[in-house]
Amino acid sequence: MPLLVFATSNAHKTEEVAAILGEEWQVEDLRAHPGVTLDEETGDTFEANAIIKAVSGSRGAPGMLVLADDSGLEVDALGGAPGVRSARYAGETANATDNRAKLKTELAKLPQDIRFTGRFQCCMVLAKDGEVLHVTSGSVEGRLLTEEVGAGGFGYDALFIPDGFAETFGVLPADTKNQLSHRARALAAMKEQLDSLT
Ligand code: ITT
How much is the pLDDT for 76? Predict the structure, then answer.
């Protein structure tokens, strides 16, 4: 089974990527590669930050295929926020609970008669030995709730209902999320490239 080093500290992302790739790839994240350090995410776009993570990660894991994911939530009524700052929306040391609380606070300041449309975005970058091999992206449109529903998933999942469904990613089964999410779509495009390398 070929090995893919996933340059993330977010175990939820790893769980999703491993489930989507299935038996064909062995996915190991930074927990299995504690010596690999990633450069700071200083980019203004998902792509710029995914490139930073993939390139720096691949320099620390010579000869290995390294994948990075930069992702986040865009809310139209908030001008696209939290966007690339999704992981740090409530502050540099914020956790997911803090970030959801901040989002609920911001949404509560707006007129409540509008539908809060938005999307999850994901950019994935594959790199080896400091060189970018391939870049893909994916998104999933939906709407935001002002109160959490469901305990599944992670991050903003309990506040997001994907278009075509009546329940949040916090309620929908992981299998369903993994068929239609931003991450699933970016990874489906990346899979062709991965398969061509084995
Ligand atoms: P790494 O940088 O180590 O990969 P991270 O969680 O900091 O982990 P990002 O910088 O890409 O990753 O930030 C992504 C944030 O966007 C994440 O922390 C969540 O708040 C949110 N997010 C991304 N994908 C999500 C998903 O599928 N469900 C819910 N929230 C998501």
Answer: 98
